[in-house]
Amino acid sequence: MNTPPRKPKKATISASTSPESPNSDIAPSENPASATIDVNAVEVPELTEDEQRDRLHLERKVERAFFEAGKALAELRDRRLYRSTHSTFEEYCKDRFGYNRSRSYQLIDAAIVVDNLHKCPQIVDILPTAEGQVRPLTKLETEQQQQVWQAAVEEAGGKVPTGKIVKDAVQRIMERTQVPNSYQVGEVCQILAKDNLDLRGKGGYWCIVTHIGEFSCTVKTWNVEMTVGVQHLKSFNYLPDECQQMQQICDRIRKLRENENLEEAARAVLEHLGELKRPYLTAVEEKLLSVIEFEYGIIDEIPRNSQSSNK
């Protein structure tokens, strides 16, 4: 009869404190949890001059990446080097780099700002390292860009400031240079989003001024009430009767907005009305609004001749 093969024995680790044991420097009477273990320090060699030079060179490349990208995009655009494969610069950037139009021009504008900052000897040692840090500066004149960047660097303790610090510095300098608020309560204006991320998705909306501040206005749109800087408003210069008519339209839309069961189709109609560039509804728009009001119980019946003072 064949003898079955033996199973291999599992290796075991001894808890011995022999000289070969890693914990041999711990006395047997000591509690291992509270024992002190000697660890040999590893000396980290200092960088050589060549390594320091390489490090600085590579850091500068990282810091200037967005700047170099913006400069390259500007040259590709200005020389129309995309023309052999694409009809427009925007299509080329989307296909080649995955950039939409907004991103491409953000990088180009940022490169222009950095070039302007280079012209100021006082700030040549502390320059932007990311596009978002200079985005708030793109709407300013060259001298203002330099002043704001210097103020932001000081606020950041002599270091490269964050985009928020720069944005706050821009807001302060704009408030100092703005003319007094000339808007009036009840005036109908258009919202200009520009580079204000807080107004994203609201650019083009008409709004009604409800409160006047020193450099801002509280306004209400078809779906929200908020405070907006005067630089982000543009008056439609409507007559008083037209402003009153827009106030009535706004009240009707906002009353519908309070309904939690508002369907997507109805919401789309209201959003369209929130972007009007005229002080009245067309006959079709008035009928659509009346149908929605009737459907959600705002009015008891649809007016037979439901239309606004179409001009």
From TrEMBL:
Region annotation (Disordered) ranges: 1-38
Polar residues: compositionally biased ranges: 13-34
Source domain of life: Bacteria
Annotated Basic residues bias: 1-10
The protein's name in its UniProt record: Uncharacterized protein
Organism name: Nostoc minutum NIES-26
Lineage: Bacteria, Bacillati, Cyanobacteriota, Cyanophyceae, Nostocales
